[in-house]
Structures are given as structure tokens and as C-alpha cells.
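Q: Could you fold this chain for me?
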Amino acid sequence: MQVTRDYSSLRPHPKGAIQLFADCSAFLSASGIVAKILFASIDTKTSKLEQSPVLAFAAKRSAALRELLQLNDLPFLRSLGVRNAFEHIDERLDRLLKENPSEQFVWLHLSRDEPPAGLVLKRFNPNTLHLSYLDLELNLAECHSEILRVREKMKGAYDKVRTHEALLAVASGARNVG
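A: Sure. Below is the predicted structure, expressed as C-alpha cells.
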């Protein structure tokens, strides 16, 4: 089903639109996990890193992983946009509702067209693959491209480990390596 207009919170939503936003949310959650693994504590102040051995270890671990995989140039995943897409949405919603108390509120907007004036909670443009949560816009195509690069680097690392499996087995005295 193609949706060509916005659906305000007063009208029922087609199941297709709800499923699309659910799929986008799942994609962003998974991307956020990858970002946390690769860029742990990247936004943490130096004083917090010095006070917390766990945060300092996480920062070193993620830096070593990025170096091992040669993945230091992932600007979209490195940005806090992916990680914060869901976090702090309540604070942003409170701020925007307070700033614009009488504006129209649109729950979901799935369209190639601009949304109506007012506050839009979630918006997806199928032409540009941009997903917006309130005042934060994310480019899903850029994120997907970076995830594919991570996947390829992980596959390369796994293939290297597999080529050494027989040597590791011989060195450890194991038998029947297949």
C-alpha cells in the first residue's frame, strides 16, 4: 500500500506504515549497538575516563577494534545521532511541546512530501530514505552503507582467523580440525 499523505494521530494508521516505522526502529537499534561497540566512550569527557577504569577500558577496546578492522572513517556511526535517536526523545518532546504548545501534532508522517506545519513525532521520506524523530534527522542510506563496510571488514577478519585455524590446532595439539 502506498501512502501519499501524512496520517495525523486522529486517524487510524495503515498496518504498512506502522510496520515500516517498526522496521526502521529495529534497524536503528542494531546500528546503535554496532556504534556502541566500535565507538565506546567516544563522547565521554577525559575526566570521566580517568575516573572510571571500565569506561577507559571500553574506549581502548573500541579503538583497538577499529584499528584492527581498519574502520576509523565511519562518520555516520561515529556521530551521536544513531545512538541518540531513541535516547532522550522524552526530553526533546517535552522541550518542543513547551516551545510550541498549540501546534498540530502528527504522530507518523510517511510521505515524499513535506509534513504539515506543526510537530511531527516520526517522519520517513521513502525517496531520500531520511528518518526523522522530532528535530533529529537520520540518513538511513548512509548508515546502511557504513554497516555494510563493517560487515565486509568483519568477514575479512573472520576469513583470516579461519586460515590460521589449522595452524592453531596443530600448535595446541588438537586433532580432527575440519
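A (continued): The chain has a mean pLDDT of 76.
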